[in-house]
Automatic annotation (TrEMBL):
UniProt-recorded name of the protein: RAS p21 protein activator 2
Positions of the PH domain: 447-548
One of the protein's GO biological processes: intracellular signal transduction
SMART domains the record matches: BTK, C2, PH, RasGAP
Domain Ras-GAP: 233-419
Keywords, ordered alphabetically: GTPase activation, Metal-binding, Repeat, Zinc, Zinc-finger
InterPro entries, per database record: C2_dom (IPR000008), C2_domain_sf (IPR035892), PH-like_dom_sf (IPR011993), PH_domain (IPR001849), Ras_GTPase (IPR039360), RasGAP_CS (IPR023152), RasGAP_dom (IPR001936), Rho_GTPase_activation_prot (IPR008936)
Domain of life (superkingdom): Eukaryota
Length: 677
């Protein structure tokens, strides 16, 4: 048995050859007669380079040092290095090693009971995560079998040894080539960033959007750092709840320049990059809920899903593999379709906006409203997360090659769901996209999102009485909120989702009860007591998501109840008085807490500072007469729709950047003085 062991990164390349007796100094090939080990060939690790690419006869040695053996085997070994592309999305080059073992022939094999037997040879790849064994055909009744069969094994993620295979020190684990980027943010006091921060936050309101400070930053940094400069902009706007109008505006600008409906949002642009960054920030928990359980199963069960006949291993059953793949794809797709209540509200808002913009741009195409959303939710979100779960913190380590291949096949299937052809044929996919756009009123198929037993206060009661609270079964679908006397019974009251104006917590002092929340709608508020605080938060989150696109949602609310002729919270006697407290922000608090606005603004300043020459060229292009005459040759590298407005923004940016640089210079002068820190 020829054993190859692929070791972790950081160890030698050639120690992947190891002796069957758990050393890493030799490689072995064992020959069997029927089920009896005949002998082995052992080659020292440091001698492997002598035989690479050459045919040699090797004397068979005993498998057991105390046994006897006779005969020899003729074999050839090669070790080739390839550079391949792993998958169509990730596009990461990996060092891939192919080990070739050619079993040519054997001579002088022993007789068993005086007769020739049926010999064959096996070659096995043994690794920490997988094993791969191949064997030659059986040769009938001979002591000198002619095999002439070649086997190859692919081994990835390995480092080359120093000295091209020469013997190294025992504690020398090889070398790793790295490219390190170090970024230092010298964050000033918050007041120093006020002017630049306000200028960036004003971006969504600038008309046209191409004249905004945020868009200008993306324009001037595109050639140097791509669209990486947009990440701090996205985070800053996200923290201040200004991201949605900005994304809507840049998406509308891109659609103006899109000529074919089937190419909508398929390229790498300022709009697609900003939306990608948004999904990665706010969609982490969504991916964890949706994909992590299925991915854990895929990693732990390690079922083979290869369906390409060229890549099938010996003994693989393509029908079984196909069933395995179909099972995984079904679980992933089912998990996605049933996760509508977990989709972050901001993502729903953005998708809804994209859908409306696409329909307006291509009114004659009935499918473009779906492809506008699918290009992000399938191609840029779920498919990428399945292919590279470790980059989304769904798994702690890279998958081994076989699991990576399974993930690639699943990812390609998810990509196909977002394709033009799938959207035109697959009704379920279109329905799924409607849910993601949070427009449940247009989705005819009703599905239950959440239901629990609660205590509900009778609506319209003016007095505080314990008997006013009754046990009810509360149920919310994508279309309506209803409560029932018992589960499965007819609804006692139905509130259409489209009529919900707000969902907020209720102060404990209102009814001397904990875990209360209120559903504010077109009639009397519905007061509900959940079983615990976790269920309370779940109800508020679910109801807020399904209703957040409703027109007329409130901006303020009363945190207590109207009892005894006045509001308990503000003592106002008029029941129709507007709320005394702002409604809860839609952005999750933990995301806001993770964003340091001063640091993000400092990064924006750094990107502007490193591209001041490009900013000056853009200013010159705006000031040039060629722009006003409609001759765009001199400024083709920039998006200038309104030269005057863009020029005004750039001049304001220049003043703000100079002022902020002066703050940095003064800080540097202070820290250079003796005794200062």
């Amino acid at each position: 048995m020829f054993q190859i062991r692929d070791l972790p990164i950081g160890q030698y390349l050639l120690p992947l050859f190891c002796l069957i007796y758990k050393t890493n100094t030799q490689c072995t090939c064992q020959l069997r007669l029927a089920c009896v080990f005949v002998g082995k060939v052992a080659i020292r690790k440091e001698d492997l380079y002598k035989y690479c690419g050459k045919e040699n006869w090797f004397q068979l040695q005993p498998v057991d040092p105390h046994s006897e053996v006779q005969g020899k085997v003729h074999l050839e070994m090669k070790l080739n290095e390839l550079i391949t592309e792993n998958g169509s999305i990730c596009q990461h080059s990996l060092r891939q090693l192919c080990v070739f073992c050619r079993i040519i022939a054997c001579q002088g094999l022993p007789l068993i009971s005086g007769q020739n037997c049926d010999p064959y040879a096996t070659v096995t790849l043994v690794g920490p995560a997988r094993s791969d064994q191949k064997k030659t055909k059986v040769k009938k009744k001979t002591s000198d079998p002619q095999f002439d069969e070649t086997f190859h094994f692919e081994v990835q993620y390995l480092l080359q040894p120093k000295g091209n295979g020469t013997k190294s020190k025992p504690d020398d684990l090889g070398s790793l080539r790295l490219k390190v980027t170090y970024t230092e943010d010298n964050v000033l006091p918050s007041a120093c960033y006020t002017a630049l921060r306000n200028l960036m936050l004003k971006s969504p309101d600038v008309k046209p959007i191409s004249a905004s400070a945020a868009h200008v930053l993306g324009d001037i940094c595109r050639e140097s750092v791509g669209y990486d400069a947009l990440l701090p902009v996205v985070r800053l706007l996200l923290h201040h709840n200004r991201l949605l109008p900005f994304l809507t505006s840049v998406a509308a600008l891109e659609l103006e320049n899109t000529q074919e409906a089937n190419t909508i949002f398929r390229g790498n642009s300022l709009a697609t990059r900003c939306i990608d960054d948004m999904m990665k920030i706010v969609g982490k928990s969504y991916l964890t809920v949706t994909l992590k359980p299925v991915l854990n199963e895929i990693f732990e069960s390690n079922k083979t899903c290869e369906i390409d006949p060229v890549k099938l291993k010996e003994g693989d059953n393509v029908e079984v593999n196909k069933e395995n793949l179909q099972g995984y794809v079904h679980k992933v797709f089912t998990s996605i379709t049933q996760s509508s209540s977990s989709c972050p509200p901001l993502m729903c808002d953005v998708f809804r906006s994209l859908r409306q913009l696409a329909s307006k741009r291509f009114p004659a195409d009935p499918h473009v409203q779906y492809s506008a959303v699918s290009s992000f939710i399938f191609l840029r979100f779920f498919a990428v997360a399945v292919l590279s779960p470790h980059t989304f913190q769904l798994r702690t380590h890279h998958p081994d090659p076989e699991i990576s291949r399974t993930l690639t096949l699943i990812s390609k299937t998810i990509q196909s769901l977002g394709s033009w052809g799938s959207l035109s044929k697959n009704k379920l996919v279109r329905q799924l996209l409607v849910i993601r756009c949070a427009e449940g009123t247009k989705f005819r198929c009703v599905h239950v999102i959440f239901n629990r037993e609660v205590h509900k206060r009778a609506q319209g009661r003016k007095r505080l009485r314990k008997k006013n609270f009754k046990k009810r079964w509360l149920r919310v679908t994508n279309l309506e909120l209803s409560y029932h006397k018992q589960k499965g019974k007819e609804a006692l009251c139905v509130i259409p989702v489209k009529n919900i104006l707000g969902v907020e917590k209720l102060e404990e002092s209102a009814f001397n009860r904990k875990n209360m929340f209120q559903v504010i709608h077109s009639e009397k508020p519905l007061y509900v007591q959940a079983g615990n605080c976790v269920e309370t938060n779940s109800w508020i989150e679910v109801l807020s998501q399904v209703s957040r696109c409703n027109p007329g949602r409130l901006s303020t609310f009363h945190p207590s109840a109207y009892v005894g002729g006045s509001w308990l919270c503000c003592t106002e006697t008029n029941e129709s008085t507007p709320g005394c407290k702002p409604c809860t922000a839609t952005l999750l608090a933990n995301i806001q807490l993770d964003i340091d606005c001063d640091r993000e603004t400092e990064r924006i300043f750094s990107f502007f500072s490193s591209s001041r020459s490009r900013l000056q060229k853009m200013e010159d292009a705006c000031a040039g007469m060629s722009v006003y005459l409609g001759q765009q040759e001199e400024c083709s590298a920039f998006t200038i729709q309104d030269p005057k407005e863009t020029f005004r923004t750039i001049k304001e940016l220049g003043e703000v950047l100079d002022d902020l640089q002066a703050h940095h210079d003064s800080k540097g002068a202070l820290t250079d003085e003796p005794g200062t820190m």
